Amino acid sequence: MTNSIEEIEFTDAILAIGTNTTENHPVIGSGVKRAVRQHGAKLIVIDPRKIGLVDYADIWLRPKPGTNVAVLNGLMNSIIDERLYAKEYVANRTEGFETMKETVAKYTPDHVEDITGVPADDLRIAARIYAEANSASILYAMGITQHSHGTDAVKSCANLSMLCGNVGVEGGGVNPLRGQNNVQGACDMGALPNVLPAYQPIANDDARTKFEKSWGVSLPAKPGLTIMEIMNAAHDGDLKGLYIMGENPMVSDPDLTHVEASLKNLDILVVQDIFLNETGQLADVVLPSACFAEKNGTFSNTERRVQRIRKAVDAPGEAKADWQIISELATKMNYAMSYSSAKEIMDEINGLAPSYAGITYERIEEEGIQWPCPSTDHPGTRYLHKGKFSRGLGLFSAIDYRPSDELPDNEYPFILTTGRVLYHFHTATMTRRSEGLNERYPESLAEINSRDAEKLKIKEGDFITVTSRRGSLKVKASVVDTPPEGTIFMNFHFSEAAVNLLTNPALDPIGKIPEYKVCAVKIEAA
Amino acid sequence: MGNKISLTIDGKKIEASSGQTILEIAKENGIHIPTLCYYPNTKPAGACRVCVVEIGTAGKLEASCCTPVSPGMVVQTNTEKVMNARRMVAELLWSSGNHNCLQCEKNGDCELQDLIYELGIEKPRFEIDLPGYEIEDTNSMIQRDLNKCILCGRCIRVCNEIQVHEVLDFSMRGSHTKVSPAFDADYIDSECVFCGACVDACPVGALTFKQARFKGRPWEMKKVRTTCPYCGVGCQMDLNVSDGKVVKVTTNMDYGKPNHGMLCSKGRFGMNFIDNSDRLKTPLIRMDGELKAASWEEAYGYIAEKFASIKEKDGPDSIAGLSSARCTNEENYLFQKFMRAVIGTNNIDHCARL
Ligand code: SF4
Ligand code: SF4
Ligand code: SF4
Q1: pLDDT tens for each residue of A228-249
Q2: pLDDT tens track for A439-456
Q3: Mean pLDDT, all residues of chain A
Q4: Last residue of a domain, one of B22, B45, B78
């Protein structure tokens, strides 16, 4: 997030696009509802599904799945057309406006209505609400990113925010809500093929030299493979060994048949986890690790706040903290790592990752600190790009709408879109072992619109077969009006109804994110 | 806040800002006024009248939680009249419910118990009149025993005003007022999303965490502050540990950002996995097609040898690592250091995109 969670409650307008906030980030969802109910904020919801926030919205735009970029361009078209944009801000703080303007000129509300199904007048109303607010916050999540054009949609959100002068101001910003507790931290720490901790490029000689000195080794300069490329390399036999810590690609990756074949093709698969999950079952070596309640450390939340976790109970049996396992394995491989606590590792991070330099355990004992925090007397950063963008001028990108990779046709007439539900998390290894949560949501349900259900003679609770070009599965139907006609929604929590047998592994060319939100399927009564 | 004004509380001259309530300014100055229905960050209800104080020479009793300060005001917090009024309230509450502390989860952490003790009441002057509600036992997360409910409305306010789940309200059933979801449904049959905020808010034993019942007394419980392991909000919470086990999750508004004492159902009730019997307890190595228990030495030896031979034969880029958005910063840092410095490859990624 460019801005902070707290600011959402006190801003003038909120545009929530591709985020089912009340289910996936419920505490932020409540903040949005308080903003509306108690502080008079205006709320624009843009989502194909009738999500919980719709009841609180001033206006709800319901585009066809996969058409976010067209909607965002349409909003900008309307704002520019009605001259509601922040002219001074655009002139002084940004560049690339003219090219962007040329591109969005095509996206008149009427044209956007043709592409997205959103009524032109609704689009204009939403555009006015967003543009006329003093400060307005854009919230988004996987509904924006999990598309073959995810990066485009992210850039379009940034365009819209800059157009109305909302980047670098209190209550504004472009705010991705992170799905997992420490996605932010995993990225910050350089668990990425092209960057070292704090996003220092691996290809940069100065950055590499700094780490080489500290670590006492020479480092490869060539960026490595991304997760999808790793799976493909394993499939082709070019990759021989894979070490997986705390992830379950056998449920979370698109096209599971391919993932399974890839993992089975390895010479060695090492899986380190708290449970023997679907991926662990294919491993050659499984290492038992301690869970969050059994170790010390830090997580970085979606607003860049670095917060402590603390050991409350002992790990079961011989399980050890992941940092301890890595240290011992490294030492075994003749590279000594002799940390005696998580804090010692943070001390090392402080010295190598400039944005974390001032974030020490002593300072975050009571309250976490938001990076960038370059020194121990720096209070941390509530919102980014204040007064000036990190790169100097904010850059508009000219972005055209591209349809999703796989669209419905005669054979596969429905759109399948995927996501999460309130009571479960990710591949559900943890939540399905919690009695209460299972009581509330015991089995996977596919949400289907009541009119579609009627046509297909499907009743609440019937089993249906959902088939895509990649696979087929049986699942119980829930007949509701949450998804629009022609769209079915499934969650990816349940491995016995593994929706990623169906999803399309088509990737966003830059973000390399698979298109989980749109693929074509057919539905039959089972 | 408004202008500075001065007033007198218990003979002490005090500076306040106009718009503050008597209760707020008293708290700020360390003057104790007992409360029951007061709950931070919600609108004052003035319902229980435990926080009454005497104002001016006329001796008017007002609820301090919803009376704003005014210039020159003279407030007394502990006159005989005040004490009598409080005793009356406490005795009425005591006698209108089943306040048997012997089997109550809240024993030792109950605001009604504290109040009665503070006021030194031996026994209520009224006969005990049990409402006779059935204990709600239809879900495994929250137990509702409305026989202990004092109708303070804190659960309603936290549900509607802070969490904005808008599930609870007062309803009339015969001669009794009660708090419940719409149509007097059980929680499990209502729109309740099991955030548990109402349980944290309840001052007495009417709402309790069911799985923690009989698992440890409040004074035996070790509270360990940590960060929720589920979504990216990073809610601050207390793991309540008794006998080496996490038995429940509670919160503390004073922890402040980012969640100000609120959670969702995952953070609140998603902790059974910690001591689940399926947890991995030893390393496993595949032998003759099956995963068999092994020692750490054997597991490390196996991996080290295999990685070293692949590295030598096919080069370090034939090995890759997937780190975890679930692990700590320290572990992610170390994992990428391991892949880069020990294996010698940049083939490292994680499942953030998924
Ligand atoms: S658990 Fe949460 S949603 Fe349910 S009644 Fe209590 S406060 Fe409301
Ligand atoms: S259930 Fe608890 S919080 Fe709710 S009104 Fe009764 S005593 Fe108050
Ligand atoms: S309690 Fe809920 S909202 Fe808070 S971090 Fe955990 S999962 Fe997210």
Answers
A1: 899 999 999 999 999 999 988 8
A2: 888 888 999 999 999 999
A3: 94
A4: B78
pLDDT, one tens digit per residue, over A461-496 is 999 999 999 999 999 999 999 999 999 999 988 887
Residues 183-222 in B contacting A (C-alpha not used; CB under 8 Å)? 188, 193-195, 211, 222
Residues of A with Cβ-Cβ distance to B222 under 8 angstroms: 312
Q: Please give the distance, rounded to the nearest whole angstrom, from the Cα atom of residue B228 to the centre of ligand 2.
A: 26
Per residue in A506-519, pLDDT (tens digit) is 888 888 888 999 99
- Domain extent at residue B328: 297-353
What is chain B's mean pLDDT, rounded?
94
Q: Give the model's pLDDT for residue B268.
A: 96
| Backbone torsions φ then ψ of B84, nearest 5 degrees | -60, -40
The CATH number covering residue B37 comes to: 3.10.20.740
Torsion angles phi and psi, residue A255, rounded to 5: 55, 70
Which of 3.90.1140.10, 3.60.10.10, 3.40.50.980, 3.40.228.10 would CATH assign to domain A5-177? Answer: 3.40.228.10
- CB of B206 within 6 A of ligand 2: the answer is yes
Contacts of B314 in chain A (CB under 8 A): 240
- Residues B272, B303 within the same domain: no
The verdict on the CB of residue B144 being under 6 Å from ligand 1 is no
Establish whether residue B159 lines the binding site of ligand 1, counting it when its CB lies within 6 angstroms of any ligand atom. Answer: yes
Note whether residue B33 is domain-resident. yes
B97 alpha carbon – ligand 2 mean position (Å): 12
Please answer whether residues A328 and B296 qualify as being in contact, where contact means their C-beta atoms are separated by less than 8 angstroms.
yes
- Whether the pLDDT of residue B82 is over 70: the answer is yes
Peptide bond into B181 cis (omega under 30): no
- Residues whose CB is less than 8 angstroms from the CB of residue B117 and which lie 6 or more positions away in sequence, other chains included: none
Contacts of A225 in chain B (CB under 8 A): 320, 347, 349
**Is residue B22 within 8 Å of B64, Cβ to Cβ?**
yes
For the record, the structure tokens of A339 come out as 């940390």
The ranges assigned to domains in chain A are 5-177, 179-224+289-314+341-376, 414-525
Task: Give the tokens for residue A256.
Answer: 């599971």
- Take residue A189 and report the two structure tokens written for it: 């720490």
Gap between the Cα atoms of A370 and A359, Å rounded: 9
pLDDT surpasses 60 at B354: no
